[in-house]
Amino acid sequence: MDAPEPEQTPFAAVSAQTSRFTRQYQAYLDKSTPYTTYRWIGTGVLLLAFLVRIVIVQGWYIVCYSLGIYLLNLFLAFLQPKFEPSLTQDEGIEDGSLPTKADEEFRPFIRRLPEFKFWYSATRAIAIGFVCTWFELFNVPVFWPVLVIYWIILFCLTMRRQIQHMIKYRYVPFTFGKARYNSRSGH
């Protein structure tokens, strides 16, 4: 009379499958971490496919502009230090304590947005933008040259401000690998 209860409810089955797919996806992301060059080449190819799609269909300029603004925002976060130098200098002044660091002391550069998160967010945004170009809902009519000029002006102003900030606080956000020394230096 009483039917045996199923061992697993449909919600639990869906939850288990989702959890399994999430773990597999994270495993693929973890495996791709050391392959920085190949990851960025793939992202570049995806961006190129997106731009070719925009040029061929001659539409979805607002999607392209929005993607450009988002990628610029990500790039700026990638260039900025995690801890604002002006705030750390102000804290030393407010404490009333004596300075403990010389101006030329080495301070490691820690990014506000790490490279992997920058790559992941950029790739995901480009993929979402590419998908948006297949729906007429996102094809808002707009005069695209205005968007291009506005984006170029915005890029120039923000990069100028960022470069001035880098010069003022003397930090370089780019590293070109570990320094290599000759083993035949006479030792």
Automatic annotation (TrEMBL):
Keywords noted in UniProt: Membrane, Transmembrane, Transmembrane helix
Listed GO CC annotations: endoplasmic reticulum; Golgi membrane
Record's bilayer topology term: Multi-pass membrane protein
Chain ranges passing through the membrane: 37-54, 60-79, 142-160
Keyword hit for Membrane: yes
InterPro entries linked: Rer1
PANTHER family: PROTEIN RER1
Similarity comment text for this entry: Belongs to the RER1 family.
UniProt name for this protein: Protein RER1
Species in which this protein is naturally found: Lasallia pustulata
